[in-house]
Amino acid sequence: MSDSETQPDLSGADLPTDDDGEDTLGRRLFVRLAMTGAGACYAAAIGYPVFRYLASPAEKAMAASAVTEISLPRADQLPIGTAMMFKFGSNPTMLIHHKDGSWTALDAVCTHLGCTTQYQPERDVIHCFCHGGEYNAYTGANISGPPPRPLKKFAVKVSEGSVLVSRA
Ligand code: FES
Protein backbone atom coordinates (compact mmCIF):
# COMPACT_ATOMS: atom_id res chain seq x y z
CA MET A 1 0.00 0.00 0.00
CA SER A 2 1.48 3.34 -1.03
CA ASP A 3 1.22 6.69 0.79
CA SER A 4 -1.13 8.08 -1.85
CA GLU A 5 -3.67 5.35 -1.12
CA THR A 6 -3.77 5.94 2.67
CA GLN A 7 -3.46 9.75 2.89
CA PRO A 8 -6.22 12.01 1.55
CA ASP A 9 -5.09 14.52 -1.04
CA LEU A 10 -5.29 17.95 0.57
CA SER A 11 -3.53 19.79 -2.21
CA GLY A 12 -6.81 20.78 -3.85
CA ALA A 13 -5.56 19.47 -7.16
CA ASP A 14 -8.64 17.29 -7.62
CA LEU A 15 -11.19 20.00 -6.67
CA PRO A 16 -13.60 21.07 -9.40
CA THR A 17 -12.51 24.19 -11.24
CA ASP A 18 -14.21 26.59 -13.60
CA ASP A 19 -12.97 27.57 -17.04
CA ASP A 20 -10.30 29.85 -15.56
CA GLY A 21 -9.03 27.07 -13.34
CA GLU A 22 -10.40 28.74 -10.18
CA ASP A 23 -11.54 26.64 -7.24
CA THR A 24 -15.34 26.48 -7.67
CA LEU A 25 -15.91 24.46 -4.50
CA GLY A 26 -14.40 27.29 -2.44
CA ARG A 27 -16.65 29.79 -4.18
CA ARG A 28 -19.70 27.60 -3.63
CA LEU A 29 -18.88 27.24 0.04
CA PHE A 30 -18.36 30.99 0.36
CA VAL A 31 -21.65 31.76 -1.42
CA ARG A 32 -23.48 29.18 0.72
CA LEU A 33 -22.07 30.67 3.93
CA ALA A 34 -22.86 34.20 2.78
CA MET A 35 -26.44 33.24 1.91
CA THR A 36 -26.86 31.47 5.25
CA GLY A 37 -25.54 34.52 7.12
CA ALA A 38 -27.75 36.88 5.12
CA GLY A 39 -30.75 34.63 5.79
CA ALA A 40 -30.02 34.58 9.51
CA CYS A 41 -29.72 38.39 9.58
CA TYR A 42 -32.97 38.74 7.63
CA ALA A 43 -34.78 36.35 10.00
CA ALA A 44 -33.46 38.25 13.03
CA ALA A 45 -34.47 41.59 11.51
CA ILE A 46 -38.02 40.33 11.01
CA GLY A 47 -38.30 38.18 14.11
CA TYR A 48 -36.94 40.51 16.80
CA PRO A 49 -39.53 43.29 16.35
CA VAL A 50 -42.29 40.66 16.29
CA PHE A 51 -40.89 39.14 19.49
CA ARG A 52 -40.69 42.59 21.14
CA TYR A 53 -44.23 43.41 20.06
CA LEU A 54 -45.61 40.18 21.49
CA ALA A 55 -43.58 40.37 24.70
CA SER A 56 -44.12 44.06 25.41
CA PRO A 57 -47.53 43.98 27.20
CA ALA A 58 -46.25 41.57 29.83
CA GLU A 59 -42.97 43.47 30.17
CA LYS A 60 -44.77 46.78 30.46
CA ALA A 61 -47.08 45.44 33.16
CA MET A 62 -44.12 44.07 35.12
CA ALA A 63 -42.11 47.28 34.75
CA ALA A 64 -45.09 49.42 35.71
CA SER A 65 -45.85 47.42 38.84
CA ALA A 66 -42.19 47.17 39.89
CA VAL A 67 -41.82 50.94 40.26
CA THR A 68 -43.51 52.38 43.35
CA GLU A 69 -41.91 55.83 43.48
CA ILE A 70 -39.63 58.02 41.48
CA SER A 71 -37.56 61.03 42.45
CA LEU A 72 -37.33 63.87 39.95
CA PRO A 73 -34.21 65.94 40.64
CA ARG A 74 -34.69 69.73 40.33
CA ALA A 75 -38.38 69.29 39.42
CA ASP A 76 -39.17 71.61 42.35
CA GLN A 77 -37.96 74.37 40.01
CA LEU A 78 -40.81 73.66 37.57
CA PRO A 79 -42.39 77.08 36.85
CA ILE A 80 -45.92 77.72 38.05
CA GLY A 81 -48.54 77.04 35.37
CA THR A 82 -46.46 74.45 33.53
CA ALA A 83 -46.09 70.69 33.38
CA MET A 84 -43.32 68.23 32.67
CA MET A 85 -43.47 64.69 31.32
CA PHE A 86 -41.50 61.81 32.80
CA LYS A 87 -41.66 58.02 32.83
CA PHE A 88 -43.13 56.22 35.83
CA GLY A 89 -42.00 52.68 35.03
CA SER A 90 -42.77 52.49 31.34
CA ASN A 91 -45.76 54.88 31.46
CA PRO A 92 -45.61 58.50 30.39
CA THR A 93 -46.66 60.55 33.39
CA MET A 94 -47.05 64.29 33.90
CA LEU A 95 -46.18 66.49 36.83
CA ILE A 96 -48.19 69.71 36.92
CA HIS A 97 -47.34 72.82 38.95
CA HIS A 98 -50.66 74.63 39.02
CA LYS A 99 -51.09 78.41 39.05
CA ASP A 100 -52.36 78.22 42.64
CA GLY A 101 -49.04 76.63 43.64
CA SER A 102 -50.36 73.09 44.14
CA TRP A 103 -48.82 70.02 42.49
CA THR A 104 -50.42 67.08 40.71
CA ALA A 105 -48.97 63.97 39.06
CA LEU A 106 -51.20 62.02 36.69
CA ASP A 107 -50.75 59.07 34.38
CA ALA A 108 -50.61 60.68 30.93
CA VAL A 109 -52.01 57.69 29.04
CA CYS A 110 -55.58 58.34 27.91
CA THR A 111 -57.98 55.71 29.21
CA HIS A 112 -59.83 55.66 25.89
CA LEU A 113 -57.37 54.21 23.40
CA GLY A 114 -54.02 54.94 24.99
CA CYS A 115 -52.89 58.19 23.37
CA THR A 116 -50.57 60.39 25.40
CA THR A 117 -52.47 63.34 26.83
CA GLN A 118 -51.20 66.90 27.24
CA TYR A 119 -51.65 69.61 29.84
CA GLN A 120 -53.28 72.80 28.57
CA PRO A 121 -52.24 75.50 31.04
CA GLU A 122 -54.48 78.23 29.62
CA ARG A 123 -57.57 76.09 30.40
CA ASP A 124 -55.98 74.12 33.25
CA VAL A 125 -57.20 70.79 31.81
CA ILE A 126 -55.65 67.61 30.46
CA HIS A 127 -56.54 67.20 26.80
CA CYS A 128 -56.26 64.19 24.50
CA PHE A 129 -55.85 65.19 20.87
CA CYS A 130 -56.80 61.77 19.51
CA HIS A 131 -60.56 62.03 20.12
CA GLY A 132 -60.97 65.14 22.23
CA GLY A 133 -61.13 63.53 25.68
CA GLU A 134 -60.61 65.93 28.61
CA TYR A 135 -59.72 65.38 32.23
CA ASN A 136 -59.57 67.52 35.34
CA ALA A 137 -55.94 68.57 35.81
CA TYR A 138 -56.17 68.35 39.63
CA THR A 139 -57.91 65.00 40.03
CA GLY A 140 -57.69 63.24 36.66
CA ALA A 141 -61.50 62.91 36.62
CA ASN A 142 -63.26 62.80 33.26
CA ILE A 143 -64.69 66.10 32.01
CA SER A 144 -65.79 65.24 28.48
CA GLY A 145 -65.17 63.01 25.50
CA PRO A 146 -64.99 59.25 25.10
CA PRO A 147 -62.49 58.20 27.83
CA PRO A 148 -64.26 55.68 30.09
CA ARG A 149 -62.16 56.13 33.23
CA PRO A 150 -60.23 58.91 35.01
CA LEU A 151 -56.47 59.25 34.78
CA LYS A 152 -54.57 57.54 37.58
CA LYS A 153 -53.34 60.03 40.18
CA PHE A 154 -50.04 59.78 42.04
CA ALA A 155 -48.94 61.21 45.38
CA VAL A 156 -46.55 64.17 45.12
CA LYS A 157 -44.06 65.28 47.76
CA VAL A 158 -42.06 68.41 46.97
CA SER A 159 -38.80 68.98 48.79
CA GLU A 160 -35.71 71.13 48.36
CA GLY A 161 -34.05 70.03 45.12
CA SER A 162 -36.48 67.31 44.03
CA VAL A 163 -40.04 66.08 43.74
CA LEU A 164 -40.98 62.58 44.86
CA VAL A 165 -43.85 60.94 42.95
CA SER A 166 -45.28 57.70 44.33
CA ARG A 167 -48.29 55.48 43.98
CA ALA A 168 -51.18 57.03 45.90
S1 FES B 1 -57.45 58.06 22.90
FE1 FES B 1 -57.81 59.80 24.10
S2 FES B 1 -59.81 60.37 23.60
FE2 FES B 1 -59.47 58.62 22.40
Notes on the structure:
- With 168 residues, this protein is of the alpha+beta class.
- The protein is 28% helix and 29% strand.
- The chain has two domains: 17-66; 69-167, Rieske Iron-sulfur Protein.
- The protein contains two helices and ten strands, in the order H-H-E-E-E-E-E-E-E-E-E-E.
- A six-stranded antiparallel beta sheet has the order 1-10-9-4-3-2, with no helix packed on it. It has a four-stranded antiparallel beta sheet with strand order 5-6-7-8, with no helix packed on it.
- The mean pLDDT is 86.
- Residues 110, 112-113, 115, 128, 130-131, 133, 145-147 line the site of FE2/S2 (inorganic) cluster.
Bound molecules: FE2/S2 (inorganic) cluster
H/I helix tally: 2
CATH architect. name of the largest domain: 3-layer Sandwich
Give the spatial strand order of the biggest sheet.
1-10-9-4-3-2
Radius of gyration: 31 Å
CATH domain fold name of the largest domain: Rieske Iron-sulfur Protein
Oligomer: single chain
Shape: elongated
Low-confidence stretches: none
Overall pLDDT, averaged?
86
- Give the helix/strand class: alpha+beta
Order of helices and strands: HHEEEEEEEEEE
CATH C-level of the largest domain: Mainly Beta
- In CATH terms, the superfamily of the largest domain is Rieske [2Fe-2S] iron-sulphur domain
Work out the count of structural domains.
Answer: 2
Helix content: 25-40%
DSSP strand tally: 10
Tell me the span between the first and last alpha carbons.
Answer: 89 Å
The largest β sheet comes out as: 6 strands, antiparallel
Percent range for β-strand residues: 25-35%
